[in-house]
Design goal:
Elements lengths: L1 H9 L12 H13 L1 H17 L7 H24 L1 H7 L3 H31 L5 H27 L16
Helix pairs in contact: 3-4, 4-6, 4-7, 6-7
């Protein structure tokens, strides 16, 4: 975790590939940003090893939300590796690809983590158990809804569709 934090201070300019950096600076920040994928991958595998090393488990609600978080965080991380390449980032800048990447890594990951915590701590604090079937239904609806909403945005971004527009050229019509 500390290594990821230190690398985060070094790669701050990977958000600024489109401002006219010289080639050497872009190459440095591309390499440094790709380097972050190594400790982050170790962190994801550590989470999975913790799950697998704990022995047989039932799929209770907090664990389901944690597995959903790991999946969404991994998809967002893989799209981040693509964006770490400065030439790809310049092409995908201000498209829906960046929007989907951001939501997978930060927004939805945080929401799934919050629901994981609520599912785990609410019964301990309140003394009341949460309904398992409703909780699993909530997870399934949320997981499907998130992926149906944000996964196609990767393809929209790769097609060049910009974000923050209220009208698009006719070439993007069906």
């Amino acid at each position: 975790m500390v290594r990821i934090g230190v690398l985060g201070f070094i790669v701050w300019a990977h958000h600024m590939f489109t401002v006219g950096m010289d080639v050497d600076t872009r190459a440095y920040f591309t390499a440094a940003t790709m380097t972050i994928a190594v400790p982050t991958g170790v962190k994801v595998f550590s989470w999975l090893a913790t799950y697998c090393g704990a022995g047989p488990r039932s799929m209770d609600l907090p664990l389901i939300w944690a597995m959903g978080f790991i999946f969404l965080f991994t998809v967002g991380g893989l799209t981040g590796v693509i964006l770490s390449n400065s030439s790809m980032d310049v092409r995908l800048h201000d498209t829906y690809y960046v929007t989907a990447h951001f939501h997978y890594v930060l927004s939805i990951g945080a929401v799934f983590g919050i629901f994981c915590g609520v599912q785990y701590w609410y019964p301990l604090f309140m003394g009341l158990g949460l309904h398992q079937r409703w909780g699993k239904s909530h997870f399934i609806i949320m997981f499907l809804g998130v992926n149906i909403t944000f996964f196609p945005q990767h393809f929209l971004g790769l097609s060049g569709i910009p974000r923050r527009y209220n009208d698009y050229p006719d070439s993007y019509r069906f």
